[in-house]
Specification:
It catalyses: N-terminal N-formyl-L-methionyl-[peptide] + H2O = N-terminal L-methionyl-[peptide] + formate. The protein is α+β, with helices and mostly antiparallel strands. Helices cover 26% and strands 27% of the residues. Bound molecules: zinc ion.
Amino acid sequence: MAKRKIRILGDPVLREKALPVKEIDGQLQQLIDDMAETMYEAKGLGLAANQVGEKLRLFVLDLKQREGSPELLVFINPEIVATEGEIYEEEGCLSIPGYSAKVKRRAKVLVRALDREGKPFEMELEGLGARAVQHELDHLEGILYVDYLSPLKKSLFKRWWKKHKPR
Ligand SMILES: [Zn+2]
């Protein structure tokens, strides 16, 4: 396994739409393992493939690592098939280190995807898990959570980022 470099806001790959995964082979599984290692090392909740420079519809999540019982979830070619309710909570992103802001998300989602072996599955998530799935799916569309900020908050964020962007 190898750690990958996490792309930071301003990197054009974060704004590109990821392409469907066509083949789940050893090379893709290597990428998945690398993404997991990169996510754990960065103590992130989730990581999308384009955050490490790969334009593929794939993300990894671990909602339990902070409780000390890691459980890696792999979503290949994910889609949200149903949603319910609304929540407004603080979010952050490994590609925008040091910043967090509240955004509106659906409270519950039903996701359909393929796992690391290519087996289809459906998963219902709520709260933190639902937010994480929506955040990572946005990455695959080239969307970042700061895009949802109000014009005022967005301009404050841009000023903050100018000062705090990692060099
Ligand atoms: Zn993110």
